[in-house]
Amino acid sequence: MILGAADEPRVLCIIQDTTNSKTVNECITLNLPASTPLRRLFEDVATKVGYVNGTFDLVWGNGANVADMMPLDQTGDKTVLDAGFEPGKKNFLHLTDKDGEQPHIMSEDSGAVDDSTQDRFIGPLPREGSVGCSNDYVSQNYSYSSILSKSETGYVGLVNQAMTCYLNSLLQTLFMTPEFRNALYKWEFEESEEDPVTSIPYQLQRLFVLLQTSKKRAIETTDVTRSFGWDSSEAWQQHDVQELCRVMFDALEQKWKQTEQADLINELYQGKLKDYVRCLECGYESWRIDTYLDIPLVIRPYGSNQAFARVEEALHAFIQPEILDGPNQYFCERCKKKCDARKGLRFLHFPYLLTLQLKRFDFDYTTMHRIKLNDRMTFPEELDMSTFIDVEDEKSPQTESCTDSGAENEGSCHSDQMSNDFSNDDGVDEGICLESNSGAERISKVGNEKNSLLYELFSVMVHSGSASGGHYYACIKSFSDDQWYSFNDQHVSKITQEDIKKTYGGTSGSRGYYSSAFASSTNAYMLIYRLKDPTRNAKFLEVNEYPEHIKELVQKEKELEEQEKRQREIERNTCKIKLFCMHPLKQIMMENKLEVHKDKTLKEAVEIAYKIMDLEGAVPLDCCRLVKYDEFHDYLERSYEGEEDTPMGILLGGVKSTYMFDLLLETRRPDQVFQCYKPGEVMVKVHVVDLKTESVAPPISVRAYLNQTVTEFKHLISKAVHLPAETMRVVLERCYNDLRLLNVANKTLKAEGFFRSNKVFVESSESLDRQTAFTDSHLWKLLDRHANTIRLYVSLPEQSPGSQLKRTVYQKQQQQAQEGDNGDSSKSTEASDFENIESPLNERDSSASISDPENFQSEERSDSDVNNDRSTSSVDSDILSSSHSSDTLCNVDNAPMPLANGLDSHSITSSRRSKANEGKKETWDTAEEDSGTDSEYDESGKSRGEAQYMYFKAEPYAADEGSGEGQKWLMVHVDKRITLSAFKQHLEPLVGVLSSHFKVFRVYASNQEFENDNKITIRLGRALKKGEYRVKVYQLLVNEPEPCKFLLDAVFAKGMTVRQSKEELLPQLREQCGLNLTIDRFRLRKKTWKNPGTVFLDYHVYEEDINISSNWEVFLEILDGIEKMKSMSQLAVLSKRWRPSVMKLDPFHEVVLESSSVDELKEQLSEISGISMENVEFAKGRGTFPCDISVLEIHQDLYWNPKVTTLNVWPLYICDDGAVIFYRNKTEELMELTDEQRNELMKKESSRLQKTGHRVTYSPRKEKALKIYLDGAPNKDLTQD
């Protein structure tokens, strides 16, 4: 049946034009029949938007990243429905540039704009409705969206590498300067003399050629920065554009030595000024000649809040002389005494290109921070510099030159001391020169030149942001059409004179009294003027005027660009898909990426895949083929019989960024035939089970259909494995360890839960096991064991001279345990410990010799031997409590473990308890976290009984050579559901001691996920019993630079008092730490990171009065005298006196308060310091103990003498022991420091506080110096910071 036009589904297409800033927010809508060809879609879009068809791309825009989407292919015969368009839904498309080139505008005669216009000198490309608009002007809200705004001007932008906007602004300004560009083109690069990569002039030449001839929207500057010797880190450093200008000009002068361009920078940008001091008594003048490349103009005079309104005012201020009088008098060489004098600057010569730097960045001595001045300062489009020439002083016969007493340079003016001999400056032919020998001639020349010092503005470099960072862009006037353009990195747009005025700074409108607070941060920073002189003003070179070497460079760059375009076209038509292959010899699954052109045939793709997988010599090419593969489900979807000559683009469904399937390079033996895989089939891995030998065979792959019945499926398997179907039992493993017996003959595979990839077990024997209920059958138990058996490698303790003794002790204790009742014997199984350590190679002395068989506890090895940096470790691999003795091995860690037969290691990630063990014990997931006693644990010997049905098999294993000499290993196959307690009982005869006297550690590799080898190591030593916790003890040293010092690991038990734990600690402190203490001379207290907290009283009971947990930490504090803390109502604070008169802090002194009263605190502080109570002022310390603070800040930064009566309210909130209190005498005056003393003290404090890790003061990011390396790479000076 053929649908009529009215019945055909329609496709709604919404297209957004992202090539233009004006149209990026507008959309066009097309409602097309589903059978519309894609090429018709492109034609309709071209007609709608006015572009030439074939000069733009369409990509999907349904919420995806445009850059990641492949363009639609308009060359084929596909319909919109075939291409993935959905009828009845909105299909969003983006119209984008084609190969980085802007779409061609359809002219009135429906022709495209001639591409050759791009090859001539760049100027505005005509486009209907394209006018200068302030909306195109880039505001201070610079964002990535401007990249989508394709330039309609014909000018090419520059890509911002990261923070290189300042570089882009300067490069565009130099490019738009005809005299500089033309001179650069005249210079010829000699490849035999220099490496082109490190040649700055050559890379600038290339960049300018690309800016002039490229069809791209924006080009990279990486080749230029590479010639500077910069690496990628420089792209993340923002520098000052004026600083860059000077450094680049210096580098060009060095590179251009002994060439025609050697004096180019000076001819274009260098001016001269006279720095003079004139005696007001005799008229004697001392002076020197300085050169400058730019004139720095102050925005706001020093000490004034009022900025200069105009650039002209700032220029007058620049040359305004000052009077040296009083203590600043000048020593006159003629008068031979100190006299009043006039000091100032006088312009002698203005350059052809005049650069004015507006000094918007300043230093605020009040806040000691850099600031940016956003005050308004206007600048004219034409600047008359003749008003800044004053020849009055030149007429004076008393003016003399002085070569050795010149005044200092003004401000940051770029100056080089010049010879005082005027005859050296005869080469200057513009501006004002005072070299003439005749005064009359000099005056005449001055008068003539004054009339020719009219400059026109052509570049404004704008900074938007603050002193700490921002964004640069340039507003430049083209000398070809007098049109202003905004060059903002990639984006170039037309702007108007009104937009230039927006860069004056200040407010954009009247905001009343608070206008200064709303000043715009976008304002002009550098202005470049050109002298209006028809005899010197140059025009840009036309293409036919290029020197030969530039013509060759243009051609070379065109070819490179065409090559890039061709490469992009190839990339657009290349299918990239994951490729897998099971190596026929190595039997490992290899993975790679197949990249093949969409027009290559399947046969050619097989040849490419064959080479990628390096199968030559392993299997012949004609024994390989590509099949559609689902790697996630390990499923072969289909094979491609008879399609060897079909293009890959058709087979794969087109060129896509990602595919929902993979390819497998399948191999066969020469005597085999490839199996045909049809779509819709499911793959089944069949394992044959032998009940007699209790073995499970490796899988055989069989393909079936979901609509097949179980009976049909059994006959299919029967042919594959050669077993009778009549007696066959088929068990499906639907998901991990979910075993289902397929015993309904007429049920389909789909109904039984088959999917793409399946695993079944088959058994066909005449045994009576078939008549038993499945869950009670031998088959079920075998499969259950098969699924739950894991392989572990166990490292036994090294055999020491005491090993025989250990065996004797083990046998003796084992005999005693058998003679006693079961309840007592089961107590030895309570210890179940599983620790995480880094590597078995780190284990030293893992088995200590036993000198006293009666004292096994002394064997326990301190965890500090495993990790020597306990004081800095916040996460510790501590021993788990005995409540976890009933936890199964599979719950120790959820990471996968390989099975004994190496099958399906992922199936271990979830566990299913055996029928016999169901519901008997809690797992760690259900046990109360960190609870030593609350988890249920059966002490009646059930854990020992569990070992009877849990599979366990151990055999010696030869470990790698690096495992340690003399160390013994076992390879253990064990049911992962076995409890740790039962697991340790199985290991008892192998280790030689009772399970309560060794610990089990899981081995991790270098703090990474544990290895697939699942290594376990055994260490001798008493394990934790139920209700015991391992505790880390640190010493609190309040007056030491490092107040927290790790001492030892101890074991505290539930119900133990603090005094009992102190008694147990005494011998350990003496033996391990060398601390000979009495029980009343130290205390224990709470530790929260490095902060001391609640003091524990001797009668406190763990778990009742003090919450305790695994990996617990406590402070041990040695007392100077008897313990003052007797009651929980008392409060112990640490006080430290601040002495402002000497700028010093006293050591800590503990104050014990009976209440939270502020008066009591002041009274105690008065008593220990001798300060009268009414003069005591205090403040709470901030941050982590010991609350370090600089002595330069403490006097004013802390909240002194808060108006409260108790300590437990705001702003103090002192409710627990250990708070830090600073106090002072309010009558004590702060020491007055000289600048030298302050700087010295600041260095000392900075060094002291940095050692303790505390912040000194705000320190802004250190700026990296801007350098250009002439040899192309920086010198690695290791002595430099």
Automatic annotation (TrEMBL):
Its EC number(s): 3.4.19.12
GO biological processes: base-excision repair; intrinsic apoptotic signaling pathway in response to DNA damage; monoubiquitinated protein deubiquitination; negative regulation of intrinsic apoptotic signaling pathway in response to DNA damage; positive regulation of canonical Wnt signaling pathway; proteolysis
Entry's Gene Ontology cellular component terms: cytosol; nucleus; SCF ubiquitin ligase complex
Keywords carried by this UniProt record: Coiled coil, Hydrolase, Protease, Thiol protease, Ubl conjugation pathway
Biased composition annotated in UniProt, kind: Acidic residues: 925-938
Stored PROSITE patterns: USP_1, USP_2, USP_3
Composition skew (Polar residues), residue ranges: 398-420, 803-831, 847-856
CDD domains named among the record's database cross-references: peptidase_C19C
Low complexity: compositionally biased ranges: 871-887
Protein name, UniProt field: Ubiquitin carboxyl-terminal hydrolase 47
Source organism: Sphenodon punctatus (Tuatara)
